[in-house]
Specification:
By secondary structure, this protein is α+β, with helices and mostly antiparallel strands. It folds into 2 domains: 115 residues, Nonspecific Lipid-transfer Protein, Chain A (2-Layer Sandwich); 121 residues, Nonspecific Lipid-transfer Protein, Chain A (2-Layer Sandwich). The chain is 47% helix and 21% strand. It has 10 helices and 9 strands. A hairpin with a 2-residue loop joins strand 2 and strand 3. The longest helix has 25 residues. It starts with a helix and ends with a helix.
Length: 252
């Protein structure tokens, strides 16, 4: 069972938040963002999350809240916002109509590009650079989804309630790395390596990580063969794995 509020947090901070990384990694993104001055889009979801994404010089940055934005997109419910992500809802700005061209053209092209990497055509994955970028973006999205499920989903919150304070290193060997920071049973995903992890989950290589993300290999078997390294505070890793099981439902 999927909770729409939790899904809204994942869609905003996890999926749209990955636009930051898309702009850093995918060369096509810079050619899409041609605005000469910074433009910010604010997303405000009633009963859910809010954030502002600022686009400038081929890059973008997300910040929580949307008190200062050029374009404001309000959503009356989490379900409505989730409809934006799955393409069934067209939002109407409450502010910034003169930037509608950027919203309909540049922003839409950028989200289409993100979708191309996040839900790729199998043929595209045969290209080594595309494969690396796609899997890296998935890794970052999953790390944020872990935190949002731990903070909002009822089953995820139960797992988080059994986690002690500290950092979990969540990474691909010789590849992208993230940190799941736990404090007072609240989780925060940081898209950087952990400097002092209390527990570690590391995938042996980027191909293995991709197979796991796509559900093509068994995680328990990979732990047995050493293709997934798990060490440190076992209770943190146990509960992280329970939350990971929920991630597959939300990002399916």
């Amino acid at each position: 069972m999927i909770d729409q509020r939790t899904l809204a947090y994942i869609n905003l901070y996890g999926v749209l938040g990955t636009l930051e990384n898309l702009c850093e990694l995918a060369p096509e993104a810079e050619s899409i963002l041609t605005n000469k001055k910074p433009i910010s889009i604010g997303f405000e979801v009633k009963g859910g999350p809010s954030a502002t994404i600022t686009f400038y010089k081929g890059r973008c940055r997300m910040e929580q809240g949307c008190t200062k934005c050029d374009v404001k997109l309000p959503f009356s419910s989490c379900e409505k916002f989730n409809g934006l992500i799955d393409g069934t809802v067209t939002p109407i700005p409450s502010k910034g109509f003169h930037h509608i061209g950027f919203l309909l053209k540049d922003f839409t092209k950028l989200t289409d590009l993100l979708n191309k990497y996040m839900r790729p055509d199998p043929a595209d994955l045969e290209d080594e650079d595309f494969f690396r970028i796609s899997t890296t973006l998935m890794m970052y999205t999953i790390s944020v989804a872990i935190a949002q499920i731990g903070n909002n989903d009822e089953i995820g919150k139960f797992s988080a309630s059994n986690m002690v304070d500290g950092e979990i290193a969540f990474s691909i060997k010789d590849g992208p790395a993230a940190t799941i920071r736990v404090k007072n049973h609240r989780l925060l995903a940081v898209k950087k390596p952990s400097e002092s992890p209390r527990a570690v989950m590391e995938f042996a290589n980027i191909k293995l990580a991709r197979d796991l993300f796509d559900g093509n290999v068994n995680a328990i078997a990979c732990i047995g063969t050493g293709d997934i390294v798990m060490k440190g505070m076992i209770s943190m890793l146990d509960n992280l794995n329970r939350i990971l099981d929920r991630v597959a439902l939300y990002l399916a």
